[in-house]
Design a protein that fits this description.
The protein has a 4-stranded mixed sheet. It has 6 helices and 6 strands; from the N terminus they run βααββαβαββαα. The protein is of the alpha+beta class. The protein has one domain.
């Protein structure tokens, strides 16, 4: 396992107003879903438990929408979102897949446990 200097969660939605509206409309219709959104948000607000986890993770951890990724993050995650990426010695790689995020069943604690091996390697 590599040493990760940064960890990024990638939502399966654009962060623009239109992108957010498209996501909400798709979610209401049952045509769009983002298991990472389910973990990090309750309705339109970020979960307090998730905010606390981010503050205490010990590794630079941020969340991005599809349109906010840089070229390298896009190359690592296109067609595989939502996901969690880690920046290691050889570039960005997927740490948690869509299926692993879905298995967290909206739980911040389950997400923390799934991500823990990658944080532990950092000495956190």
């Amino acid at each position: 396992m590599s040493h990760y200097t940064e960890i990024v969660g990638v939502y399966h939605a654009d962060g623009t107003l239109l992108g957010e509206l498209r996501y909400v409309w798709g979610k209401l219709r049952g045509t769009t879903h983002c298991s990472l959104c389910d973990i990090t948000h309750a309705g339109i607000r970020q979960k307090e438990a998730f905010r606390s986890f981010m503050d205490s993770s010990g590794v630079p951890l941020k969340m991005l929408h599809l349109n906010e990724r840089d070229e390298a993050q896009r190359a690592a995650s296109d067609g595989n979102t939502p996901c969690v990426l880690g920046l290691g010695p050889s570039g960005w790689e997927i740490l948690l897949t869509t299926e692993q995020l879905r298995a967290c069943q909206k739980s911040v604690e389950a997400f923390r446990v799934a991500l823990k091996p990658f944080l532990t390697k950092q000495g956190v």
